[in-house]
User: Which sequence fits this backbone?
């Protein structure tokens, strides 16, 4: 725990930190006083780990936020409110359905000068626009972005503390792929590392495990879901159970890099439940996140009932 | 040079390599036979360096392709053809002007069901759409993407070889931020590195300097422009001149991380020329790439004249 405190003391707050906290505060205040729906903090995308003070290079990971952005949509479909804490430029709920690379190909200029989406694309995109606008009108989605590991952890702590007074109405869905390793500021070179110095030796330290502080101090009553990603299937369940025992939160979702889009396992203190897409569902374009979120909603409702007895 | 050959032997071709090469071949064939305009290969964005065989983590750099995508547009404005070899999901010419994050906010559904860009945004975006569609109609822009260092170098070599028969009609504008360090495949762990093993020591080797092979073997008559980015101003000119002397190409554009958007220096065998934006230009939103490209066009025309004498 002392390590977590030390990390925050040594790592500066991200740019625009106060403005972001104010927005999160306002969002939660509105929901605390006026409504009775759960608020899910969905974290999404990878964190960067700078290798230099004037950062040119950093360590990153493959995540582009597919799991987080899809899950956020399905939580919104369930009527929940969502704070979407995501890596800048990663996928966002609803916007992820737009063609990312060839957007200009689908826009055409009308004779009256208006700019219109081509008819053949229009129907699919209109549905997305409609869902997005309705969620925004209802004030149920807040987008907050981060880039580095330090940015992410500062925002995670701040948001958790803001959510804490909501008690069990708060859900944490930690889908962001957070780095396990980093270089502390005081051990980082100031300038770009020169290739003329020859091969590069990097020493990275372990990032303190924040889940302990999160569960025990920042968000004591919330329903907390973490993820465990492995490439070696033999390690998965053991590592998931280890996290659960160590931190005492509610659910670990285990997944393997190569099969994560159609197979996950929900690991709790009481057992394991596998969630899979069958081949028909895969062909039909069903996303596994719809099943994951449905499963969590059932578990969460039970959790709330048990807590109120 | 043996190191470069060794790198290619050990690094597998990127996914879809042959399809990409076929497209580049076709694009160059059309231009070789039918037109008499220069073809610029613009490289853009950063390369990733995987740390694991089943890649979860990689080293990346801060580049999102601002320099490359803006420059590509200005080369197109000059009437040139452009092969835009860019990092997947980085900025692209024309598309970079679209609002990246709040695109759904500017789309609205009309009473007749059509999807339209809001009037207040429409005019600016229509101009971009018009420029993009006209360039595509004229077949002057080819987009090719890459992700890792290996992908990039395989595509750079292939494209250079395809361009070689064009002689001095080919221009290389190497704006991509290519990693100086990598971990060879045979020294990479297969599975995700476990944090339970404690702090992480990484040993990265130097990426062979490909510019030598490029200038001497792949593209012998082309006009070649490379970039040098530093964070320490004291090193910049020396490093730029060093590259020029070593590889014998035409131009190095030097820039400093913090001032790169309004100041660069063009370094050649004959001297240095500074290009800057004044405060009026910065306020007016002028991009330095328009000046860089104009400057290169003048230099390139002179280069062609000299070569033909």
Assistant:
């Amino acid at each position: 725990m002392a390590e977590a405190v030390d990390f925050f003391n040594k790592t500066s707050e991200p740019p625009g930190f106060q403005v972001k906290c104010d927005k999160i505060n306002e969002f939660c205040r509105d929901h605390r006083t006026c409504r009775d729906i759960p608020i899910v903090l969905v974290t999404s995308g990878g964190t960067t780990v700078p290798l230099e003070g004037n950062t040119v290079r950093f360590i990153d990971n493959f995540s582009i936020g597919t799991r987080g952005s899809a899950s956020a949509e399905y939580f919104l479909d369930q009527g929940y409110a969502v704070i979407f804490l995501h890596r800048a430029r990663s996928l966002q709920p609803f916007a992820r359905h737009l063609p990312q690379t060839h957007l200009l190909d689908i826009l055409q200029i009308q004779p009256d000068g208006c700019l219109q989406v081509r008819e053949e694309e229009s129907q699919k995109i209109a549905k997305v626009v409609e869902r997005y606008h309705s969620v925004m009108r209802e004030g149920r989605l807040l987008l907050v972005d981060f880039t580095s590991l330090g940015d992410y952890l500062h925002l995670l702590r701040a948001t958790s503390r803001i959510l804490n007074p909501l008690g069990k109405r708060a859900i944490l869905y930690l889908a962001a792929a957070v780095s396990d390793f980093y270089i502390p500021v005081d051990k980082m070179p100031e300038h770009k590392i020169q290739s003329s110095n020859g091969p590069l030796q990097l020493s990275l330290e372990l990032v303190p495990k924040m889940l302990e502080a999160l569960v025990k101090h920042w968000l004591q009553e919330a329903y907390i879901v973490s993820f465990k990603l492995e490439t070696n299937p033999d390690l998965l369940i053991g590592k998931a159970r280890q996290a659960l025992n160590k931190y005492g939160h509610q659910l670990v979702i285990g997944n393997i890099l190569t099969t994560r889009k159609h197979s996950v396992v929900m690991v709790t203190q009481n057992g394991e439940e596998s969630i899979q897409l069958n081949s028909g569902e895969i062909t039909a374009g069903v996303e596994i996140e719809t099943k994951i979120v449905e499963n969590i909603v059932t578990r969460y409702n039970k959790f709330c009932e048990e807590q109120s007895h």
Summary: The longest strand of chain A covers residues 223-230.
